């Protein structure tokens, strides 16, 4: 980084036993998922942390004699944060994207070693197909998660 060039990610240095570079489509997928995992992790921790701090400030504000208006605004802020957490679900997205990233990294490493199933003439094609299958599976999980959540009836409080 001192010379002004970006630091290379470890998987960008992988080559096949024959010296071929990791296919560009696989590199693009790995890079996208790496960024997504980081973004989702930061979003998750930020949203959770802010929710905890704001929720904890409600009884503290009340104990310090804050107005009911301020206490109500803090309560409303917690409700909004909880709603955002349910809407964007960064924790679930982070876990799902992380699992997909690790699976893609594994495929790239196995390919670079020339191990089964990447020990034949179609190694590069098979790698691209397998990575795309992982992406398709993750996308299906995301869509299913959204569909299941929307179709679940709202739970009523237990009396």
UniProtKB/TrEMBL annotation:
Domain of life of the native organism: Bacteria
Keyword DNA repair: no
Keywords, sorted A to Z: Membrane, Transmembrane, Transmembrane helix
Spans traversing the lipid bilayer: 45-64
Record Gene3D superfamilies: 3.30.230.10
NCBIfam families: SLATT_1
Protein name, UniProt field: DUF4231 domain-containing protein
